[in-house]
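Notes continue from the previous slide.

Worked example: a multi-chain complex. Inputs as given:
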Amino acid sequence: MSDTPVDLTPSGGETPETSAPNAERIPGEYTVVAVAPDKHAGEAAEEPLTTPGMADFEDEEDHSGLGTLSYRQLVWRKFRRSKLALIGLVTLALFYFVALFAEFFAPYDYRHDNIRLRYVPPQQIRISAADGWHLPFLYELKQGRDPESLELFYTSDPAKRAPVRLFHHGDSYRLLGLIPSNIHLFGSEGPLFLLGTDRMGRDLLSRIIYGGRVSLTVGLVGVFISIVLGSFLGTLSGYIGGAIDTIMQRIIELLSAFPSIPLWMALAAALPETWTGLQVYFGITLILSLLGWGGLARQVRGKVLAMRDQDYVLAARAAGANTRYILVRHMMPTAYSHIIVIATLSIPGMILGETALSFLGLGIRPPMTSWGVLLEEAQRVTVVLHYPWLLFAAVPVLLVVVAYNFVGDALRDAADPYAS
Amino acid sequence: MLNYIIRRILIAIPTLIAISMIAFVIIQLPPGDYLDQKIAQLEQQFGDSSSIAQADALRHRYGLDMPMPKRYLKWAGGFIHGDFGESFRYEKEVKDLIWERLGFTLLLSIGALLFMYLTAIPLGIYSATHKYQAGDNALTLLAFIGMSLPGFLIALMMIVAVYQIFGIPLFSLFSPYYQNADWSWGKIGDLLQHLWVPIIVVALNGTAGLMRVMRGNLLDVLGEPFIRTARAKGLKESVVVVKHAARIAINPLISMLGMSLPELLSGTTIVSIVLGLPTVGPLLLQALQDQDMYLAGTIILFMSLLLIIGNLAADILLAWADPRIRYE
Amino acid sequence: MQRKYQKIKLPANLKEYRGEGRAREHFLLIPSSFCISSFLYFCPALAFLSILMFLTGCGKPPSPTSLPDAGGGMEAKEAPALLSLVRAGRLPALEQRLPADPLVVTPYEAPGYYGGTWHMMCDNPDLGMIKMICGYAPLIRWKADCSGLEPGTASKWEFNADGTRLTLHLRRGIKWSDGVEFTSADMAYWGKLIHEGKQLLQKPFWSLVGGKEMRIETPDKYTVVMVFAGPNWYVPLQLATGFWNSDDYNMPKHYLEQFDPNVNPKYKDYSTFDKKNKSHFNPDRPTLWPWKLARIADGGFRMEFDRNPYYYMTDNRGRQLPYIDHLIVSYTPDAQVRVLKILSGEIDAQFRLAELRDLGMYMDGRKRGDYRVLKWKEASGGFVSFLLNWSAPDPALRGLIRDLRFRKALSLGIDRDKCNEVVWRGLGTPQQATISREAWHFLIPGGHKVFEDWANSYAAFDLPRANQYLDEIGLTKRDSEGFRLRSDGKRLSLMIDVPPQTDVIAADNSLIAADGWRKLGIDVVIKSWPGAQHNLRQKTAQYEVSLHGEAEMDLFTYPDWVFPTSDLYWHSKVGKWYKTAGKEGEPPTGVMLELLDIYAKIQKEKDINKAHQLALDAIRLHTEKGLFALGTAGNQPSLVIAKNSFRNVPEDPRILGPWAIVGPATSYPESFFFAPKGYVPPKRPATKVATSRRQ
């Protein structure tokens, strides 16, 4: 369900306004007559008009003053009602904020390795010791090696303590690539590994934060490309019709006949090995967005087809507006809400797609790191049995995708605030 | 209706041809070809140039020194005879390779499909009829987690967990004892025992999503006037829900069968790569990395074919289930 | 009819629900009877789960570790399965199956029991790894410690005075696996085929002297004479090296002739011939191996081998080998599945594919899986080594690389302890790039010291000294970021070519080296190339720093690590010059010329000890003026995993790494056996296996 870029996750109670490629085959309001599935989607008018300004409410009490609010405010009000969505929104905002300032929040640089501290289990920050209470501190670690299995183990040295400080001066970096600094939110002179370390002694927490930067933005960039391509081409195709429309439909059908993972795998394997990490990153986003724009284009096209023969379009044309004006000013805005909802629901699919590709070794390449790369490194029996903390990288993936699903759901519900 | 089916089939053929061309081109995008890798490997082993002469002879034999359009035509030309070329790595006919793995691939996919539908539909009904109660909330939470957690992440963990707890190694599809044995009830039981981790892992996302869809659909249908009529008539609630409402609510799910197929295929691919199952997935990954062009191209083609067939079947199924739908 | 309505708690703010769909209204009308039956909705899910739990908890299939056959003890001279066939008249008697003078093997522990099936894994359908176990049937064999040669299917051999004629005496009466005799006619057939060159097998490079082919003469049924265009003293070594050589020259004429277009007009070309000649694909092809490929099943995932009834070896009690009846090889490309298979005890003995990084897991699982973990030797001299391109494309860089001080500085900038720690868990030895310390060149007096000098030359991690060398060369100017500037003003930078990213060892080592070199003021870029391109760049000398794993036991069959004789490694252009006899490439100068001179002398040298001395001379050149390849850590162990009841596996570390020396085939896997219950391994008398003096 979350593998293809478009998703189908209706919340309870509402018409499942699907964003799936075969949406037109799903009867919406049971007032459908004959539906030819591969033809005009949405022509059977499924949804109520959402032209801004038409405040047509069945609500008994009118003292809420809803009639005077703008579309955006209406949407926000409805969105706000869902507690889960609000939590999701806050979570996402937190993740993105941390990812933006990753260098500050992460106690170490993601490449900072320490040979003497490999495979350290997660450390505890303590506040009490044998001699009473202290400010937060950590014990220093001594490395030992089991003589038989040659596994490393660590013992805390109670004698040596290293305090944990806020705004600690640690690895130097350039904030946003511009401002040199070396202040980290928290840190310590001694080892501070809240989630443990990996094979090279790199702090997992820091790598998750830096990896989040890549994983979180891959989805955004990919979806952005999908939106731009899909909405533009869909609007064009729907409005102009004719040959262009038919060709577009065939192309979209072709795309949807491709199984996504094999296509992604083939394209990712085709990315030249000589590309830098950044180039690979953009290549991957392009690949992920490739299959997604088709579904969006079809949806938008459906809406445009429904709108195309409305009176106000006729009026605009009579007033002398050219095609481009009508397209940009009238057609596309009607689809905005739709587009945004679909986009929000596609992002988790993209994030998971990138995770899957990196997991198979076809995605992001070292030294760049992403959650998929971290999980790939954890994909060993040795890790599962002996160093299980490395599997923690799955948790942020889960949280982000769940948050996006909640937000997208509520957004879809809220996008039609005029619906009863 | 028949016209419609024939038309779909006819359209499918150029679609498949286009797909085969695109896939073929993509597979060969990386520079070099399979034999470069083979030479590299041979040189590592023997470090001398007689391997190069061998590789040149092989290159000519496999037609790798032809330009790409010719190679494509050579490959595509064989389709009519049922000859899909030979794999370089396995040195076998591609169709044999795929055929041997086909059975288990389909078994896994169909098993996951069955699991998805048989589990999700009743749970969705329960969730809808107990909206916002404790059970529903729990199921909703589980559903969201299930939809968000990619199965392949936990595949290895599950296998290792089962091994640690039960002491049964569940990798591959058979235990060694039954691997060579003839088919018997024991062997089938063994297969089922090994199959459940992959099925759950593959079906996890889909089940959760399907449950939510079922819930939503059923809630909509339960709001219809005719349900109120049914209740007013005095029918038992269970009859109302199951016999009347659920039947209508399931219709969209049937059309979603077609949409689930790509999911399932993709999911099966990843999970079998992770778990090392003898299905088509690992074959594809290896072929892509090797640039084993005939093998990879045929697999992608074959998967697209499955998709198209699946979509067509879903459409037909939907038309059969819902008499209001007509196809021109 | 009374219907009980359940007391429903109304939501606090009913208005909230209003706008959310019509599905609300029925909420208030749910009768209580429904709630009882609601659990039915969980039924399918619960049913599934319970079935699955039941199936998982179901009884395990019996453990697959084999036991010997009844009647397979010391009194049996052949396998009981074969004996019953003989009694039924379907197989000739033992005396007729064995050659007149079979090869006698002294088992490592004790003579074994007949019977059992050996399960193992491979990671490639071409079964290269498996041929290292059961595909070695050469005329001449390497000794297990590579200290010399011993007889194989040829019982003795000798050269004529000037080294142009090699006479091999075959054992009389060796038979192919289908019973037809193996005679010199088979070798003559091979000679004819490679001469004509129409099928896939090419003339082996060792048969050419000065570009001229060899000729094969067969004066009688059991004598083969190879006639070369010039002295070719090292051919016996080549005949023994690697399974691929013997795989090529052992051709069953009687079988393959049916597919030969010269003989059978039904075939127009050699394409079918080549297919049928593939010993790892064609179960019908007769072989000389101890186990013969019987079938390929499960879509290529399982290969089964059955014993060869005509095998030419016996143990020291005259009992025909092999002891084990069957091999079952499962093709397991996924690394994690391999680990799990070993842990669960599905594998009886595994000689490769057990990675050192999983050592902890294997050690922990010994009791549960009932196996033991042995550490054999990888025999590597540098895994990996950094190759410095002698003919780097950039002229300024080339000049620097050819300056010994620069190479010394680079060598001192590699933290080898760190490499050892990260890559080999401290089990290797930090050292300079060398050939294997077990190589037989070091077995002569004084050889050991030569090796030590080589391994320790500039192998320390000494940044101040390295910086000093760089300053001496004149690279004292630095740019704004602290990197040194070259004489032409550009920043001093090196690009390390790394094989594809899946190679963790290469990646880790490169990171460590790059780290050290950056501290010397050199800007290091690590670039990953696909396997084929990586090799291509090495061959065409386009790289600056490249990587390779170095493990070589014998310089005579494979001189390229020390002598610039082929277009590989650090000497691509010079090697090309040598190979093409001066037509292409770069002429050797300085040290290169000296090395090639030594090599020319070796080729003419008849006395093996003198040849060893010459090899050591070349190595001394490397120690003093070399450092063409910089090592990290080597001599790491290679894991061998064997079930506790799987016996006769040598416990003293044998060599497993280099494929040329065909480990474990040279340790006679034919003598491995499954012990019966209650078997106690006897106190082993010191089997005379000459080990290298150095541990």
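Summary box: Chain C touches chain A at residues 15-16, 18-23, 335-336, 339-340, 343, 357-361, 363-364, 418, 421-422, 425-427, 500-502, 507-508, 511, 527-530, 533 (CB under 8 Å). The longest helix of chain C spans residues 608-625.
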